[in-house]
Amino acid sequence: EAAKTKKPKAKKEEPKKVKEEVKEEPKKTKEEAKKEAKKAKSIELQGGVVAEVKKEGAGAGVKKGARVGMYYIGKLTTGKVFDQNTKGKPFWFRLGAGEVIKGWDIGIVGMKKGGERRLTIPAAMAYGKRGAPPDIPPNATLVFDIRLVEYK
105 an active-site residue? Predict the structure, then answer.
């Protein structure tokens, strides 16, 4: 009987050590994952718009109704660039007023000055079934690399 009780105790102690070792390794990977998440944090927004934060920016986040000045590169999922404005005068519009595609009105809210995001915008939040001939085909998911230059 004494031998029987000793064996389970020994078995219980050994797995504990293994568990402790295993616990330490995921902590490291979780910390690494957090660092990676800070570098490129993806947020799924309304309508399936995905905003991948490339650079946080500084100051208060921009709100609907603000006039925003943006630099951007618009691409199809194939990588083909269909539109861009990356230097000189930024592209200005009123956020949330329907002056741009819905995916922009949704994906830019909360950005900070100097912030950069990659927006992946499903067709329903972009140009839909019609597309925008000749550059944007029907039902196209669009990818925009955007930078909030300024807002008022």
Answer: no
Q: Residue 13: pLDDT above 60?
A: no
Query: pLDDT tens digit string along 87-101?
Result: 999 999 999 999 999
Is 83 designated active site?
Answer: yes
d(CA 59, CA 86): 22
Residue 134 pLDDT grade (very low, low, confident, very high; cuts 50, 70, 90) = very high
Does 106 qualify as catalytic in the annotation?
A: no
Catalytic residue chosen out of the listed positions 71, 72, 93, 151: 72
Res 23 pLDDT > 80: no
Q: Is 127 part of the annotated catalytic residue set?
A: yes
Does the annotation count 101 as an active-site position? yes
82 among known catalytic residues: yes
Active-site residue identified among 71, 105, 121, 127: 127
Please name the residue ranges forming H helices in 40-142. Answer: 102-107
Residue 37 has pLDDT above 70, yes or no: no
